[in-house]
């Protein structure tokens, strides 16, 4: 899978592309992360890519011409997915990520200043995505979040399927608590069930803890589970016991 990132700050992606799981996936050829420097497609001697907004107001707006040039220079063709990272976009969810992972190529536009000329969005962007209800100085960090979260779902990137299937938000629940050695830390002990070696009891405890944590922290997710006729009856039973 290839990500083509249109950005004013390509250097921000250098360490991201080289480190940890993403770096390994890139080196093994399972993932591509290419950056396209938007200023290279400016059509003026000062490499300017922004201008004052029509109608007045604070800040500057990114012009459509350099963005179009950068998109075409990256190899975009009609029909390819173009994502604009924007606080006005639809909030990213695990279910949304599942729908994105089948693409072989995704173009990501990182905005800056006061945003991007709406005409570029109307003409080329297939969807706007937000990573949360807050505003950042640019789209680079959200782009990294999007790439990282999709990459984890690709075959072979994490090494084994269980690595992400047990994580938070998979199956509509937050993840259960995790413990490791030593068994005692500052008068706190690892739950006995995890030391028992009884796999059925461990799985039961993990499910109960996942439901409990989700019930306490994300009532919206619990509501979605209750409204989904496919939800496992064991989960419904645990939810009802917590009410």
Please characterize this protein's 3D structure.
- Strands 2-1-6-5-7 form a five-stranded parallel sheet.
- 24% of the residues are buried.
- Helix content is 39%, strand content 17%.
- It is built from eleven helices and nine strands.
- It has two domains: 2-151, Alpha/beta knot, CATH 3.40.1280.10; 166-242, tRNA(m1g37)methyltransferase, domain 2 (Trp Operon Repressor, Chain A, Orthogonal Bundle), CATH 1.10.1270.20.
- With 243 residues, the protein is an alpha/beta fold.
- It has helices at 14-18, 20-27, 64-73, 94-100, 118-124, 140-151, 162-165, 192-195, 199-217, 219-226, 233-242, and strands at residues 2-7, 32-37, 50-51, 61-62, 81-91, 105-110, 127-130, 184-185, 188-189.
- Helix 3 (64-73) packs parallel to helix 5 (118-124).
- The two termini are 44 Å apart.
Number of separate strands: 9
Shape: elongated
Proportion in β-strands: 15-25%
CATH class of the largest domain: Alpha Beta
Output the number of helix runs.
11
Q: Do you know the CATH topology of the largest domain?
A: Alpha/beta knot
Question: CATH homologous superfamily name of the largest domain?
Answer: SPOUT methyltransferase, trefoil knot domain
Largest sheet strand order: 2-1-6-5-7
> Percent helix among the residues?
25-40%
Q: What is the overall pLDDT average? A: 94
User: How big is the Rg?
Assistant: 22 Å
- C-alpha termini separation: 44 Å
Largest sheet: 5 strands, parallel
What structural category arises from helix and sheet content? alpha/beta
Structurally, the number of domains stands at: 2
Unreliable sequence segments:
none
């Amino acid at each position: 899978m290839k990500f083509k990132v249109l950005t004013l700050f390509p250097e921000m992606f250098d360490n991201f592309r080289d480190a940890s799981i993403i770096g390994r996936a890139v080196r093994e050829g399972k993932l591509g992360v290419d950056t396209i420097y938007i200023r290279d497609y400016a059509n003026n001697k000062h490499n300017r890519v922004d201008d004052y907004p029509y109608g007045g107001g604070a800040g500057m707006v990114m012009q459509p011409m350099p963005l179009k040039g950068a998109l075409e220079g990256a190899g975009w063709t009609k029909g390819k997915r173009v994502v604009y990272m924007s606080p006005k976009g639809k909030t990213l969810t695990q279910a949304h990520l599942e729908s994105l992972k089948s693409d072989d190529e995704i173009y990501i536009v990182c905005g800056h200043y006061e945003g991007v000329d709406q005409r570029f969005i109307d003409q080329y962007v297939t969807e706007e995505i937000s990573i949360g209800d807050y505003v950042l100085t640019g789209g680079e960090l959200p782009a990294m979040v999007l790439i990282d979260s999709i990459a984890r779902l690709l075959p072979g990137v994490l090494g084994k399927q269980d690595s992400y299937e047990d994580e938070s938000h998979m199956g509509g629940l937050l993840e259960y608590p995790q413990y490791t050695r030593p068994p005692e830390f500052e008068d706190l002990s690892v739950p006995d069930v995890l030391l028992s070696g009884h796999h059925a009891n461990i799985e039961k405890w993990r499910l109960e803890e996942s439901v409990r944590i989700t019930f306490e922290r994300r009532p919206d997710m619990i509501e979605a589970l209750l409204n989904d006729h496919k939800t496992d009856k064991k989960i419904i039973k645990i939810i009802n016991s917590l009410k």
